[in-house]
Amino acid sequence: MQAKKNQKVVVLATGGTIAGTSANGSDHTGYTAAQLDVPQLLDAIPALNDALQGDALVCEQVVQLDSKDMDHATWQTLAQRCAHWLSQPDVGGLVITHGTDTLEETAWFLQMVLGPTKPVVLTCAMRPATALMPDGPQNLCDALAVARNPMVHGVLVVCAGRIHGASDVQKVHPYRLDAFSSGDAGPRGWVEQGGLRWADPGSWPLRHTNAQQALERPVAQWPWVAVLHNHTNPDARQVHALVAAGVQGIVLAGTGNGTVHHRLLAALTQAQDQGVAVRLTTRCAEGQIVGQPLALPTAQRGLNAFKARVSLMLDLMG
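The chain above was modelled as a monomer; its predicted structure follows.
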């Protein structure tokens, strides 16, 4: 299905490697992120007008940061700008340029807060814009193709020709160009020569019931949710310290099928008794917990620990 023509596509830029620069074109790691603005990113796409096929392009620089420094205030601002543009009837879809380090968390937050009926497509790069062969221009061009497609709704991630769902995508490699995977779920689809091929659109995630609070509540009042990991000989004092400091939720990335060291389990059970919300997931990169192996409640939808933190934080806003 072809995109509707004469609509607007909005590109919201947040920085990241895709906007990074280095003094040496062969240096793919010693660069400075978030240096180029969004018009410069778009200027690097050959035949951009051909890709848009008559659609108007609107650009906005929301922030300039390295995504390792992503914070709740930026999330809220970005979500508010997305909501503004999504409400415009002549806007067909959004593209967000983002750093790779925390992209999966931002994608899940936006899905939970916006639940968009139009496409919101995050894209990125593993090489800076000054690389001899940068990957950002192709990723951005592919993201525009996805954002223009009328089949699409919800938050997606486009990188290295693959289309990932917000609930499944994870960064799995620190260097290679195809650094993202959707694990067992697999990609939602692929971008091939500007066209989209879908695996199975399936069911799209819904908007969280407390989404409006995330858009309106001052971020200083957002619930504090911590992430812990199970490992050999964990120290239960970290749980006690968090509880004493006022933590409201804890997500534990358990080993294997959600297994937890007995000392850590005892501390987390005690934390629950004291009113702290606890969720269990697995630190395994693929798959999800099968069954209910422990007394601890599991995170929804087999989310990884960092997305489970987002969901629990939103749960606690109610």
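The chain has nine helices and 13 strands.
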